[in-house]
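In practice, a research group might receive sequence data for several interacting partners and want a quick structural hypothesis before committing to experiments. The following worked case mirrors that situation: the sequences arrive first, and a predicted assembly follows.
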Amino acid sequence: MTDKFMLGAQDILLVIDIQNDFCPGGSLAVPRGDEVVPLINGLASKFSHVVLTQDWHPRGHLSFASSHPGKKPYQTIEVAYGTQVLWPDHCVQGTEGAAFREDLAVPHAELVLRKGYQREIDSYSAFYENDRKTHTGLAGYLRERDFRRVFLAGLAFDFCVRYSAEDAYREGFQAIVIEDACQGIDAMAPWRPRVSCSGPWASAAFPETRSKPGRPRREVAHRFKSFRKSTSDRVLITSSAVSQPRDSDIDLGQGTSEKIRYH
Ligand SMILES: [Zn+2]
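A structural hypothesis for the assembly, expressed as tokens:
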């Protein structure tokens, strides 16, 4: 029996990093990242409250391989807060690559939360920067506004969505990842960053395994799914699709198609 979520005033949708550089044609493209945009638009129309996050780096950011002579993208370096993966230059402040996708249509989003703007520290999570100590302010914002459940969608499933979901739980919110409204980059990654997980459940819920090149994204998704039951009070993985009803599907229905640019 399908038990759809009843969305209410204490629910918020957190849309992670739907930016040009993370979509095909961008400098750090998530395969098929653009394909989730129509789904997110429809999903967002079901929520009264939406927050968008935006990766927003200064030129010469620590996470850019180009900032480290002799280093190439996807190599790692040791920094003050641990291991940092080096990326191609991406989401540089004010550039087209950092802009939201033109077809992202969430005009009622109440907050655009920028992250990664400090030159010396990266930020995968929407809640904490990668030192795991520096707050972005999002938890305080959500608490002050009395939100309780955080639904997550966006890019990339296995990085910023994952860490944001973990940290939402860490901060006392119920965290629900809408898996089909996410795309991951794991399939192209022969590495995996060792950003420490939070909470005693994290190592079980998100086992840190070194990915092999070509590992299909679905395999990662399966790892999420296989813990779905045991983490139901922590991070819930669900689907927006009504055509494949599961325990806790959201009724997506039809969304709006109004276009808006955010800057
Ligand atoms: Zn970044």
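Before designing any experiment, note the following. The chain is about 15% helix and 15% strand. The two ends are 43 Å apart (CA to CA).
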